Amino acid sequence: KVLCTAGIIVGLLAFFWRDTFNPDSISGARVLLTGASAGIGEQMAYHYSRFGAEIVLTARRETLLQKVTEKCLQLGAKKVFYIQADMSSPQAPEKVVQFALQKLGGLDHLVLNHIGGTPFQMWDGDVEHTRWLMQVNFLSYVALASAALPILAESKGSLIVVSSLTGKISTPFTISYSATKFALDGFFSSLRHELAMQKQDVCITLCILGLIDTEMALEKTRGKVYMSAYPAAEAALTIIKGGATRAREVFYPWWLELLCHLRDWFPNQRDVVIQSFYNYTSA
Ligand code: NDP
């Protein structure tokens, strides 16, 4: 009986977590990707290229964008363009979406991935930094989505929002960052309801990532957390698959989903476990 129940559970898990991704669905897809000059965004640019997508890349550092563009062309992207933009400027989102529309003639995937720099340390009361970070990490996402929604509605496209475990479960040393990620969940999960109510076929995929081995993340967390970092290329592929299969949420690594489900069951024990992952004396 026990074996039979275990078999059913394993079968159900395998069914729900089966890979339904079809790479052909991305071939020729028109993609606008933010935060594409480095880290996970750069890796996503390479994956989209291998699948034969048409891409517009954006970030602030032009020399890096040029290099990523060249590599994307070598990897098989059908078209690649880049536009330099600083998402702390309220004018940037509209400019970037218009550029993508002009170059690609429409949009199938909008991938919101960029983040502004923020210290990994105890809260020091810097309200101005929180305001700025809200602009870069949250308000620019809202503005980009708002400018692109009519275009995505036409193509029945996907809006992919890259978030973090710290946007589902609160953790120390990333207070302002965490607030911007929680805000993304609130905004885009509510927007998902309204799009469904209006029968608009635009899918919203929220991506919940754990610690990923990007240069920036490793540099910031070195000596301060006791967790292993997962590979950026795999995180990037998981995000792309989630958007292409129109998943509501994706988790990388996969077990973060279980952690999120358990989030509210044992709050005191949960907080003690979370604190044990961080080195209090170094931050
Ligand atoms: P990186 O810091 O490596 O890259 C950030 C990207 O955003 C770069 O391309 C950077 O380019 C761009 N960027 C930074 N500031 C601005 C700005 N003001 N305007 C426009 N673009 C900007 O980040 P990751 O690759 O690590 O993170 C990518 C996503 O994954 C983020 O949403 C992050 O929250 C999420 N994530 C990452 C984790 C990790 O451990 N790495 C963990 C959980 C979530 P440039 O400087 O040229 O502008």
What can you tell me about this protein's structure?
This protein has 283 residues and is α/β, with parallel strands linked by helices. It has 10 helices and 7 strands. A 7-stranded parallel sheet has the order 3-2-1-4-5-6-7, sandwiched between helices. Strand 4, helix 5 and strand 5 (158-164) form a beta-alpha-beta unit. The longest helix has 29 residues, at 127-155. The protein binds NADPH dihydro-nicotinamide-adenine-dinucleotide phosphate. The site of NADPH dihydro-nicotinamide-adenine-dinucleotide phosphate (NDP) has 28 residues, from helix 2, strand 5 and helix 7.
In short:
The chain has 283 residues and is α/β, with parallel strands linked by helices.
Question: What features would you highlight for this structure?
Answer:
283 residues, alpha/beta, Rossmann fold, seven-stranded parallel β-sheet, 51% helix, 14% strand, binds NADPH dihydro-nicotinamide-adenine-dinucleotide phosphate
> What is the CATH architecture annotation?
3-Layer(aba) Sandwich
| Total individual domains | 1
The largest sheet has its strands arranged as 3-2-1-4-5-6-7
How is the CATH topology named? Rossmann fold
Low-confidence stretches: none
Structural class: alpha/beta
| Count of separate DSSP helical elements | 10
Query: Could you tell me how far the N terminus lies from the C terminus, measured between alpha carbons in angstroms?
Result: 51 Å
Mean pLDDT: 94
Largest sheet: 7 strands, parallel
Shape: globular
- How do the helices and strands follow one another from N- to C-terminus? HEHEHEHEHEHEHHEHH
Radius of gyration: 19 Å
Q: Regarding quaternary structure, how should these chains be classified?
A: single chain
**Bound ligand species:** NADPH dihydro-nicotinamide-adenine-dinucleotide phosphate
Query: Helicity, in percent?
Result: 40-55%
The CATH class is identified as Alpha Beta
The tally of strands reads: 7
